[in-house]
Write a structure and sequence with these properties.
115 residues, alpha/beta, 5-stranded mixed beta sheet, 5 strands, 31% helix
Amino acid sequence: MPAPPVADLFLVRRSSMQTVIDRIEAFGAGLFVRSRNIESRLTQSDVWRAFQEPVIVWVRNDEFDDASLQQLIGTLRGIPTVSLFRFSATRVTAQAARVVLEFWPETAIEGVPSA
């Protein structure tokens, strides 16, 4: 299945999509989409879906902290809709997690006390 035209709107080429996935995974994070209540991890070949469907960002990394979150947000800023940020075993504070809402106001946040 060829990449949909919407990817062209973001000037995303296949090589740059691989870089985005690699950068996200370097943080111990992954991009997921939910279909029929099943979450599937996006790979390099289907990352174009992140530009058409709401994504879930799931971070599981005990070294991931507030500064890492700022860097990850910078990597994700081209993605139009993030439905959920899920933090598992991270050191992200509630104050830092609220920064996510500046970029994606409708995003739910899980795994951070009082976020």
